[in-house]
Design goal:
Layout (H helix, E strand, L loop, with lengths): L1 H20 L2 H36 L6 H25 L5 H8 L2 H12 L2 E3 L1 H20 L7 H27 L1 H22 L10 H29 L1 H5 L5 H13 L5 H18 L3 E3 L1 H6 L1
Antiparallel strand pairs: 1-2
Length: about 300
C-alpha cells in the first residue's frame, strides 16, 4: 500500500518539476537577450548558491562522502554547468518551440542512462511508448522545418545527453543523500568555478534591464536551478527514474504553451495532435513495468 502511494507521490513531484522546468527555456530566451549567455548560463548558479549555502548552514548538513562527491561531479557537470550554458547559448538564435521539441528526447536519454547507473530495466512496453513519443516529436520538428541541424541544434542535443546522465545519477543518489541535498551540493561544487567568468561579464547596462528580464533571471536562479530539481529528484527517488522520466514528454508542449502566453508564439492544430499522441504514450509508459537489477544498483 505504502509502495503504491510512494510511487504516486513520486509521479506527482515529477510533474511539479516538469512544470517548473517548462518555464526554463522561455525564461532563458527573455533573460539572455539582456544579460548574455555567461550571466544567464552560469550566473544563475552563483545566485542559487547564496540560497543553497544558507539552507545548508541552517540545517547543518554534513558533507557528502568521497564516493558521493564523485557522483555529485556528474550531477554538477550536467545540471549546473552543461545544460544551463548550452541552452543559454542556443536560445540566443532559436525560438522556444524549436528548443522544446529537441528537449523532448530527454526522457529517452534519462531512461538509457538509468539502465547503466541505477540498474533499472525498462520493459519492451516502456521502450515502445518511448520510441512512439520520440518519433512524434521528431516528426513535429521536421514538420516545422527544423530538419537541418545548426550548431545551436547540436548544442541542444548535447545538453539533452549531458542532462540525461545528470538526471539518472542524481535520481539514484537522492535515495541515499536526499533529493534537495543532491542539487544543493552540486551547485556548491560548481559555483567556485563560475564566479570569475560571471564577474568578468557583469556590466552596468544590466542594471537597466527591464523588470521582465530580471524576473526571468531570478526564476532561472531560484526555481529552475534549485527548487525544480528538489521536486524532480524527489520524484525520481520515489517513483523510479525510468518511469518518472516519462513525464518529461509533456515538457515540450508545456514550454510551447508558456511561450505562447509569455512570448506570443503560436500553437497550431498539428501541435495539439502531436501533444495528444505524446500524452497517450506517457500514460502507457507510466504504467509499464520496470524491473531492477540490484547488482548494477549496488555497484553505482
Amino acid at each position: 500500500m505504502w509502495g503504491e502511494t510512494r510511487e504516486k507521490l513520486g509521479l506527482f513531484l515529477g510533474l511539479v518539476g516538469v512544470v517548473c522546468f517548462s518555464l526554463t527555456l522561455p525564461s532563458t530566451s527573455v533573460a539572455v537577450e539582456y544579460f548574455g549567455t555567461t550571466i544567464v548560463g552560469l550566473g544563475r548558479t552563483v545566485v542559487a548558491a547564496i540560497l543553497v549555502a544558507v539552507v545548508l548552514i541552517v540545517r547543518k548538513e554534513k558533507l557528502p562522502s568521497l564516493r558521493q562527491f564523485k557522483r555529485l561531479l556528474i550531477v554538477a557537470f550536467g545540471a549546473v554547468l552543461g545544460f544551463p550554458l548550452l541552452t543559454s547559448w542556443a536560445m540566443e538564435s532559436l525560438p522556444v518551440s524549436h528548443g522544446a521539441v529537441e528537449l523532448a528526447l530527454l526522457p529517452l536519454a534519462t531512461a538509457g542512462f538509468a539502465i547503466f547507473r541505477a540498474g533499472e530495466i525498462p520493459s519492451l512496453k516502456f521502450w515502445i511508448s518511448s520510441i512512439i513519443s520520440s518519433l512524434a516529436v521528431i516528426i513535429y520538428a521536421l514538420h516545422l522545418g527544423f530538419g537541418q541541424l545548426q550548431l545551436a541544434d547540436l548544442a541542444l542535443l548535447a545538453a539533452v545527453i549531458i542532462l540525461g546522465l545528470s538526471y539518472a545519477e542524481g535520481g539514484e543518489l537522492s535515495k541515499e543523500l536526499g533529493s534537495w541535498q543532491v542539487i544543493a551540493w552540486a551547485i556548491m561544487i560548481g559555483v567556485p568555478f563560475f564566479i570569475i567568468p560571471v564577474g568578468l561579464n557583469l556590466t552596468t547596462e544590466m542594471l537597466h534591464a527591464p523588470i521582465h528580464a530580471w524576473i526571468s533571471f531570478i526564476y532561472l536562479a531560484v526555481v529552475s536551478q534549485f527548487l525544480a530539481y528538489v521536486a524532480w529528484y524527489s520524484g525520481m527517488a520515489m517513483g523510479g527514474i525510468a518511469r518518472v522520466s516519462q513525464i518529461q514528454y509533456l515538457q515540450p508542449f508545456l514550454m510551447i504553451v508558456f511561450a505562447t502566453v509569455f512570448l506570443d508564439e503560436s500553437i497550431t492544430f498539428f501541435t495539439i495532435v502531436i501533444a495528444v499522441i505524446v500524452v497517450f504514450s506517457v500514460i502507457i509508459g507510466k504504467n509499464a513495468p520496470v524491473s531492477k537489477n540490484e547488482a548494477v544498483s549496488r555497484k553505482s
